[in-house]
Write a structure and sequence with these properties.
117 residues, mainly alpha, two-stranded parallel ribbon
């Protein structure tokens, strides 16, 4: 099983897929847009539902190279003050509490949740 950041892992997916096809093992790969996407989708930070359901209406392609860049900027800007401050360099303690970890895990596919728990 692998959970990878879709934006970062994208260039490596072809090699990974060829290894998976040639393997006799059961292999699962979950490729969300980004870790920031998982945080926002999980409800750890309350945001309007439309941000996740209609990202194309918010992630201006002139300003953001990718949706990952939009999610990162949005999350960092939304949480820039206080204990929820998000940094790509180091995950804050707020995000590591059992309740918040459970929220992020809840948005993973069931087959992955089953392996984690």
């Amino acid at each position: 099983m692998a959970i990878v950041d879709g934006a970062a892992f994208g260039p490596e997916i072809e090699e990974c897929m060829s290894m998976m096809v040639g393997s006799d093992k059961k292999i699962s790969v979950f490729v969300p847009e980004s870790f920031e996407y998982l945080i926002l989708k999980s409800g750890v930070i309350e945001i309007p539902k439309s941000i996740m359901e209609e990202t194309w209406n918010y992630a201006d392609s002139v300003k953001y190279f990718s949706w990952e860049e939009f999610y990162t900027h949005y999350l960092a800007d939304l949480t820039k003050n206080g204990i929820r401050k998000y940094s790509k360099a180091r995950l804050g303690e707020y995000y590591k509490t059992a309740g918040n970890v459970d929220k992020v895990v809840s948005v993973l596919p069931k087959c992955i949740r089953d392996v984690i728990h």
